[in-house]
């Protein structure tokens, strides 16, 4: 395919196809990311970044593109990926840079990858990792991150099925197993029996386990886990430090220790001005929204929560919605929110679980996880 910005046309097998502007941009985006699946939300962000269309907008444009390209199915087709969105599958090779990447450039790219990930810059990460001009070969960690960013849990589990990775299935397990006591037990077994690195240990202990202890009605244990990690950190630039403070604020709110929660949220706001981590900032906005609802301003509270959800979309870390929706499920009832607001976010969380087919993946999650303990 040869794209021409002049007139928004694309040359396919020697035939010029005329497109509308957004059709052209959508097809070009899918072409530049040949073989990668994108959710409707990701396509909206990529093609309609400053507009407010609906998911139906993407479907309509895909329908028209398929119709205009129907004569060229032997070259490529836009496929629907159930529970996720769409991807372009080309039978012709996409031009790639044949020149080997110098070792120094690869090293700098890897350092940039780590920085983008630390600051929650998921979209920048995706651009870096999928940029064919750079010609970078992805390592296993980077390929895994790309699947996380897209909430493509099925492909993620498939990729890690023979790797002995306990971290991914364990994190997902809590969202598909209704027996929270069992979830906690499995977490502790993994921490005790499976060899994991320090980052994974902290993720499991603070991101996951502390959440489930809160759900189980043991917030004091959650707070103990989080505070223990905070006390062990000597540098605020430690990658987990902002999240630990967000989590501490959430636990204090859950315990109805509102004065402490407000102080913790204020301190975390100051911290995130110095360290603008998008993921953690999105969670902080949600907590600030909950405080507004608790203070009687539900309209302003929902606006702040929506700001948080918007930051997740901006960050490109869609998997973080797992954490956000669980947090809202735990904390909204404590905020005094109306039934309508609680139901709205419960349904949003259920839609996300449905779109990512997470419930259907429970047997695969359990199989991979239980084989390791």
TrEMBL record:
Residues 1-90 bind DNA. Residues 1-90 form the OmpR/PhoB-type domain. It holds the Pfam family Trans_reg_C. It comes from the Bacteria. Keywords: DNA-binding, Transcription, Transcription regulation. This is Winged helix-turn-helix domain-containing protein. It comes from Allobacillus halotolerans.
